[in-house]
Amino acid sequence: MAKGFSIMIFAFIGGSSRYLVGQAMPATTGFPWATLLINLVGCGVLAWLSHAKRLTAHWPEAVTIGLGVGGVGAFTTFSTFSVETVRLLNGQHWGIAAAYLSATLLGGLLCSWLGVWTARRWWTFRVEEE
Amino acid sequence: MAKGFSIMIFAFIGGSSRYLVGQAMPATTGFPWATLLINLVGCGVLAWLSHAKRLTAHWPEAVTIGLGVGGVGAFTTFSTFSVETVRLLNGQHWGIAAAYLSATLLGGLLCSWLGVWTARRWWTFRVEEE
After folding, report:
1. What GO CC annotations are associated with the protein (chains A, B) (predicted)?
2. Looking at the partner chain, which of B45, B85, B109 has a beta carbon nearest the beta carbon of A86?
3. CB–CB of A77 and B76 under 8 A?
């Protein structure tokens, strides 16, 4: 119950923050910088959060799950990324589309990996990965 | 103002719905079906919504933007997709990781394209793409 409520509150904060970042970085160059930045930051934070067990073990479960699933989950977006890519492809901006797609995908995996690595290095117990 | 408020409300609904879908489809098989389904549906809906102009022209702007940016944006998630992929790679489940990655990426682009296509075919004015 507390978990569900926490997810709703954090989703509200995460989704609104995404909108504010988008407003602060208008797409003037044709390259969707705002979505890229949002998704890369979100990947790093979620990966860190779900592996920094030594730190988060002291937090209420509603907070860690609310922050991860609700907050970071609502902050990042796959649908906007995909629709933006299709729009670039439809507009025959092949180079920008390819750059956007690979920066998001490879950058996202790299940031996730970095999040896991730093959390394991400094903020985790020696536990086996489930 | 109304736009910002609408985005917040819809983000709340979108993020909570993602959690509920995840709860209804527990990851028993090792393949993240819930995230895949959420992201594919979200891509189709957002693409449709942002191109179905004949229909949405009659809606208040706060509703279309709230639903798209807030609702569908918070429903889909790039961070969970990326962290799940890194987890599969770290666990050396190469085949599942490759299948998940390509199903999400190609499926997402296909669903976005389908959303654009159906909206243009039936629910749009004959307008030039911006």
Report:
1. plasma membrane
2. B109
3. yes
CB burial of B42-71 (b: ≥16 within 10 Å; e: otherwise) equals bbbbbbbbbbbeeebeeeeebebbbbbbbb
Report the 3 state secondary structure along A69-110.
HHHHHHHCCCHHHHHHHHHHHHCCCHHHHHHHHHHHHHHHHH
ipTM computed for the complex: 0.88
Q: Which residues of B are less than 8 Å from A129 in CB distance? A: 87, 90-91
> B78 by DSSP, 3-state: which?
helix
Return the residue in B78, B85, B104, B110 with the most chain A beta carbons within 10 A, the one to mutate for interface testing: B78
Contact between residue B47 and residue B111 where contact means Cβ atoms under 8 Å apart: yes
**CB of A40 within 8 A of CB of A109?**
no
Residue A21 near residue A38 (C-beta atoms within 8 A): yes
- A113 contact residues in B (CB cutoff 8 A): 86
Given a cut of 50, whether residue B130 has pLDDT beyond it is no
Confirm or deny that B35 is annotated as ligand binding.
Answer: no
**Chain A residues lying within 8 Å of B12, measured CB to CB:** 8-9, 11-12, 15
Residue A11, judged by CB atoms within 10 A of its CB (0-12, 13-18, 19+), counts as buried
B77, closest residue in chain A (CA to CA): A77
* Minimal CA separation from B97 to chain A, in Å: 12
Do the chains contact at B18 and A69, CB–CB below 8 Å?
Answer: yes
Other CB atoms within 10 Å distance of the CB of residue A102? 10
